[in-house]
Amino acid sequence: GAGVSQSPRYKVAKRGQDVALRCDPISGHVSLFWYQQALGQGPEFLTYFQNEAQLDKSGLPSDRFFAERPEGSVSTLKIQRTQQEDSAVYLCASSLVRQSNTGELFFGEGSRLTVL
Amino acid sequence: AQTVTQSQPEMSVQEAETVTLSCTYDTSESNYYLFWYKQPPSRQMILVIRQEAYKQQNATENRFSVNFQKAAKSFSLKISDSQLGDTAMYFCAFMFPNFGNEKLTFGTGTRLTIIP
Question: What pLDDT, on a 0 to 100 scale, did the predictor assign at position A105?
């Protein structure tokens, strides 16, 4: 596609529910990142994929958070047993790995999760 | 670990004026990249300007320029001839190059409002 696409744009969940957030990166982009942006804060790194391999998941806040990218394109971030502190915007970004020296990430518009 | 600090939560300026946004960072690395990203209300992060630490010359992109002071670990953004479309959150970000894993560390952002 022309840009990074994320869905849903808005999600309201009751505490304890599971949610799944989808990211469709730019076609051909090898690297994919998930960031969490709390209200009034900068984005914080969650996890990184190179193709289907999850090479860095050091930012995932708990074992309730799980991400996958089984075929090296679309990625899903799953949050189990959601808590109120999970309320945030979840941003997905992609890049061409061979442009790692540029550091330019292409971001989606994010999925805003509200946990009641 | 790297940290990025933006000490100006909000700024406003009249249209056509010049504004400077501040950013400081802390790292023990000598080779790295610094970025300014813009996040309008649509939430999509857009790269504004990029600076490689090994380059002494300050980066410029049309109306946007940076003042990079490596010894002081300072990286400010100057916007000249500001326009209404510049209204957005601006995030300073740091990246240590790790081939393929362009993990960004963001500051907390500065909300910039351009007044007509």
Answer: 86
